[in-house]
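Notebook B, p. 112. Complex prediction, attempt 2.
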Amino acid sequence: MSDALSLAPDLSAIPADGRESPLSLARKGQRGVIVRVSGQTGRSESIDPEELERRLLEMGFVEGAAFEVLHEGLFGRDPIAVRVDDMRVALRRREAAAVTVQFEEA
Amino acid sequence: MTDTVVSRPARLALVGNPNSGKTALFNALTGSRQKVANYAGVTVERKLGTVQLADGRSAQILDLPGTYSLRARSPDEIVTRDAVLGRLAGETAPDVLICVADATNLRLVLRLVLELKQVGRPFVLALNMYDIAQRQGLRIDLERLSAEIGAPIVTTVATRKRGLDELVAKADALAISHEGLGDNVWREPTAAQIRAAHREAQRIVKACVRPPERPDTVTGKIDAVLLNPAAGLLILALLLFVMFQAVFTWAEPLMGLIETGFAALSTGVAAVLPDGLLQSLVTDGLIAGVGSVLVFLPQIVILFFFILLLEDSGYMTRAAFLMDKIMGGAGLHGRAFIPLLSSFACAIPGIMSTRVIDNKHDRLTTILVAPLMTCSARIPVYTLIIAAFIPHTKVWGVLSLPGLVMFGLYASGIVSALVVSFVIRKIFWRGTVEPFMMELPTYRWPEPRNVLLNLWTRARIFIERAGRIILPLMVLVWVLSTFPYPPEGATGPAIDYSFAGRIGHFIAPVMAPIGFNWQMTVALIPGFAAREVAVAALGTVYAVGGDDEAGTNLGHLLAGQWSLATALSFLAWYVFAPQCAATLGVVKRETNGWTWPTVMFLYMTGLAYLASFVTYHTAVALGAG
C-alpha cells in the first residue's frame, strides 16, 4: 500500500484512525486491516526477519486480513491477543512491530 | 512392493493443526488399543494404535504431533514433517494421511492441506467437530471442497464417535487404490509461497463455506473475564491454589496406602527370602527404591488431571498469555510456565513436558531451572527439620513461624529459578529472543473419556520410567550403601563402612565449612536416590530404629545433636542441591547426552554450597551456632 504514509511514523503518538502504524502500537479495542508483514522489528534481539515473516504469515498475519486487538497483558500492556480474520492469536508487542496495520475509521 | 499393500494392515497417520481435536479423534478411533513410545533418538512421543475396520481387518494408525505447517521448527514438528515425507528413520512411510481439521476454522487447515497435496501421498480430510459447525449455522459445500482439494472428505465428531467408520473405510480404500499417490514436490515454502497459499485458501473458503449464522461468542465472553489484566491473574492464582491444595490433600491418603503397601510387600518378601544379600537387594534396593518413586504417583496423576483439564478446555494458552511478561522478564518463554508448574509435584514430569517449547535454548533453560521448584520429595526433609528446630510461635499474631519458614523455602526456590534463568539468558545465551506467538483456541468442555485416556498414558509413562531409569539408579545407590560389609565386631552403623560411608567421610572436610557433620554427609549419598531418602538415611546413620518411628524420634535426636545454624544450612542445601539421581537421568534422556546433567549437577551443587555457607555463617554470627 502507500509507503509514503509510513516513512516517518510518529512512534510516540497513539495512532489515529485511518493511519498506518505498526501493530505493536495498537491498543485494546482497535481494529482494522493488515497492510504489510515484513518480519523487521527494528530490534536486534529479534530472530531472523525472514523467519519471523514466515511465522507471522503462518499464524494468519497476512496482508488484507482483518484484525482487532482483543486483550492486553497487565505489565506494559504486553503481550497482546489479536483476532486475525477468524483466529485468535497471542503475541508480544516486540514481534507485532513487524506487522503494519491500517486502523478502521471510527 | 505396492502390490503387497492388501496383505498387510494399512498404515494411516493423523496430521492436523493443534487444537483440531486430533488426539481426541485418535483416542476415539483406537480406544485403549494404543502404544506410546519414543521415536528413536528424539524425545518425541510416538503414539501408535490399532483400529478395526468394518470387514474385520485392522489398520495401524499413527498420531503425529500437531502442526500449522510442514515447515517444521520444534522437534515435534520435525517428526511430523519427516513422517509425512516418509523419511523418518526407522519408520515406514504411511500409506494414507488423515488430515484432521477443526470444521469451524477451515481457512487455517487449508494451508496445511495445500502443503500435503504437494507431498503426493493419498489423504483424507476429516472435518472434525462438525456438530459445532452445524450448531453455528456454518455451511460447507463438501462436494465442492472435496473437488478443490482433490481428496475425499468425511465429517466427524470425535467426542460422539460419529463418522469414524466412514473415515477409516475411506482411508483404507485409498490405501488399496493408491488414488492420490504421486511424486513428492514439497519444498519448504518461502514467505511468497505462504502468501500464495493464503490467497488460495481464501479463494477456497469463499467458494465453499458460508460464514456461520451464529458465530461462537462464548469464548469472547469468557476471555473478557479470564484475560482481564487484573482479574485474569487473580483467577489464575486462585486456580493454582486450588490445584496445589488438591495435589497435596487428595494425594495424601493414597500415598499413605502406597507406602503401607510397599512396607507390607517388603515385610512379606523378607519373611520368604533368607536373610542376607538377596533379601537386602530386594527389600532395601528394589522395593524401597521403586516405592520411594511410585509414592509420588498419586500427586503426579492429580497434577496431570488438572493440567489435562486446563489444556483440553483451552485455558492453558491463556495462562501462558498471562504469565508471559513475568516469565519473559526472567528470560523464560511463556510456555515454560506449564513445565515449571509441574515441577512443584516432581521435576521429572516437568522436564518431560518441556517438549512444548520449540526453541532449544529456551527449552534447556527451563530444564535447568525446573529442579529448583520445590518438588514434593523435599517436603519430608523440610517437615522433619522444621518440626525439630523451628519453634511453634506466632508471627504478628496470626502466621505460624514453621509455616513461614516453609513458605520461605518455596519462595527461595522460585526466586532462584527466575534468577538462574535470567543469568543464563542474559549472560550465556544472549542471542535472539524466541517469539512468543500462539493460537488462543476456542473454549471447549474437556471430554471425560479423552482426559482419562490421556491421564492413563501419562501415568503409564511415569511408571515405565520409574522402572527403566530410576530402578538401576536405586540399585546403584543400594550397592554403594551396602558394600563393603562392616568388619567383624564393628560397632558403628553398617553404612559407615560402606562405599557411601567412605565417600561421606572423604568429603566431610569439604562440607565442614557449611556446618555439616560427617553423619549428614554420609546420609547425603543414599539421599541421591531421592531427596526424601535422606530422612531414612539419617535415621540409619544415627542408628535410630525403623523408618516409621524415625519421623518423631529422629527429630528429637537431631534437635539434640545439631545446632540451629546447621539445621538451617541443611534446609538451604536442600533448596538447591541436585539430590535426585532420577532427575539427572531424565535430563540425560531428554537432552541426549551427559553434558546437561553434568552442568545441572555442578551449578546446583555450587549454589547449594554457597547458600548453605552463607546461611550457616549468618546464623552463627547471629548466635545460632
